[in-house]
UniProtKB/TrEMBL annotation:
It comes from Paenibacillus prosopidis. InterPro entries: NAD(P)-bd_dom_sf, SDR_fam. The keyword rRNA-binding does not apply. Keywords: Oxidoreductase. Belongs to the short-chain dehydrogenases/reductases (SDR) family. GO terms for molecular function: oxidoreductase activity. This is 3-oxoacyl-[acyl-carrier protein] reductase. One of its GO terms (biological process) is bile acid metabolic process.
């Protein structure tokens, strides 16, 4: 048994980011062609495109503001024109900002999180799900966070945006399920990425001591979960919020 995404096309928003890059490489290694979305980092997008084409896959890069509905539709049109229909959509992009208390957090940060978490998810659904309905199948995967269960001080804007995203995905799972479209979320913990490896900051005992597995997860472990959900192996899983954080948060029944 293996994950086989041959003849599939996957779109990853925020593909030049720490997690997005590994997701793109992983889905390509499973056989998928890749639509690489970026906002500002065209250089990194082109480098990643070259990596994936060297693997024997097709890859295109598309610049878009994921908080802009028309740009999402334009991205869809380019993807369809160059690679055909999109089978897998991974909503990974999010706007970064400085975390602080609710009383000190600028209102604009709440707006940016709503737009990049909730509205990105809505725009992607409106753009890509209709064609999935016509084909009677597809995969929608959102990258959420363990923060949406922790609700720690200083996380309010991010947590609010991701919890709103969670609501959209759960409803979409019910609305699209009859067309064999699965809609799931992956919720990483504080994940080790290339940024940590470059700075040698992989270890953080203050965080890891509270994790049942006593370590931080890796970007590859997040990407592995995305690849599983994108595959036929996960054909009967939908509406799930799956923490990939060593048990640091555990959804209750």
């Amino acid at each position: 048994m293996k994950i086989d995404l041959s003849n599939k096309t996957a779109l990853i928003t925020g593909a030049t980011g720490d997690l997005g890059r590994v997701m793109a490489r992983t889905l390509a290694s499973c056989g998928a062609n890749i639509v690489l979305h970026y906002n500002n980092n065209e250089t990194k997008a082109k480098e990643l495109q070259q990596e994936i084409t060297a693997m024997g896959r097709r890859a295109i890069i598309v610049q878009a503001d994921v908080t802009n509905e028309q740009q999402i539709y334009d991205m869809k049109d380019k993807a369809v024109q160059e690679l055909g229909h999109v089978d897998i959509v991974v909503a990974n992009a999010v706007i970064q900002y400085q975390w602080t208390s609710i009383l000190e957090q600028p209102v604009s940060d709440y707006v940016s999180q709503f737009e990049s978490c909730v509205m990105q998810s809505v725009y992607l659904a409106k753009a890509f799900v209709p064609a999935m309905i016509e084909r009677n199948g597809g995969r929608i995967i959102g990258i959420n966070t363990e923060c949406s269960m922790q609700n720690f001080a200083g996380q309010s804007a991010y947590t609010a945006g991701k919890r709103g995203m969670d609501g959209v995905y759960r409803v979409l799972a019910k609305e699209a399920g009859g067309h064999q479209i699965t809609v799931n979320q992956v919720a990483p913990g504080w994940t080790i990425s290339d940024r940590d490896r470059a700075k040698h900051t992989e270890e953080n005992s203050g965080y890891s001591q509270n994790v049942p597995l006593k370590r931080r997860g890796t970007d590859q472990e997040i990407a592995n979960t995305v690849a599983f959900l994108a595959s036929d192996l996960a054909s009967f899983i939908t509406g799930a919020y799956i923490p990939v954080n060593g048990g640091n948060v555990m959804p209750a029944i």
